[in-house]
Structures are given as C-alpha cells and as structure tokens.
Write the structure tokens for this entry.
Amino acid sequence: MKTTMIIKTLKSLVIAGAILGSSTLLANDGATLYNKCAGCHGAKGEKVALGKGKVIADMTEEELNISMNGYIAGTYGGAMKGLMKGQIANFSKDDIKAVSTHIASFKK
Ligand code: HEC
C-alpha cells in the first residue's frame, strides 16, 4: 500500500515537472502561440478574420507588433478590437514579438 502511494506521488511529480518544463520552453514559441489564432486568421494568416480587419499575412513584422501592443493598450483597432484584445490579453511583449515573427514568416 505504502509503496503504491510513493510511486503514485512520484509519477504525478514527474508529470507536473514535464508540464511545467514544456510550458516554460514554449512560452515564447510563435508557432505554438499562433495555434489559437488560426481559426479566425487562417493557418497562414491568409483569412480576413470574421470578415473584419486586415489579412495579417500581408502585414510587416513591425505592423503586427504595433497592432497587437495597441490592442492591449486600447489604442488600436476597429469595431472588433475588444475581441482581439481578449485573444492576446495574457501575452507578454516577448509573446507578441514571437507571434509577429511567426506570422511575418508566412510571406512567400
Ligand atoms: C475569434 C476570432 C479571432 C481570433 C481567435 C484571433 N483574432 Fe486577430 N482579429 C480578429 C478580428 C475580428 C480582427 C479585427 C479587429 C478590429 O476590429 O480591429 C483581428 C485583428 C488582428 C490583427 C490586426 C489586423 C488589423 O486589421 O490591423 C492582428 C495582428 C491579429 N488579429 C492577430 C491575432 C493573433 C496573433 C491571434 C492569436 C493569438 C488572433 N489574432 C486571434 C479575430 C480573431
């Protein structure tokens, strides 16, 4: 009985460590951050999200940075800026940079 408990505890520690470790590693990974954007913006940023805004694949890395920092600050955007702010509300400046670099890489 006791041994089983110890093994169970060790197992959950290993799993917790793996989750923590990978999320730290992936925190600024643009491709991973972009996963939740693809539904509206397209796998390669080629869609006009919900029929609003620009095709983000056409934007430069700088424009992407400026627009996303602006959504967070409340200084950028159109009719659906509130929705976009929600999408990236928990992004750090580094996350925005990483996802901008990733989107800019979609250009042929
Ligand atoms: C639920 C749909 C949806 C999701 C998910 C979404 N967006 Fe958007 N996004 C929009 C809409 C709608 C707009 C236009 C908002 C406005 O009115 O300014 C927009 C605008 C933008 C713009 C600026 C384009 C412009 O017109 O200037 C960027 C950059 C952007 N999104 C990046 C992202 C990134 C990066 C993610 C993922 C972290 C993401 N979006 C997730 C719907 C979405």
About this structure: The mean pLDDT is 86. The pocket of heme C is lined by residues 33, 36-37, 39-41, 49-50, 52-54, 56, 64, 67-68, 77-81, 83-84, 87-88, 99 (CB under 6 Å).
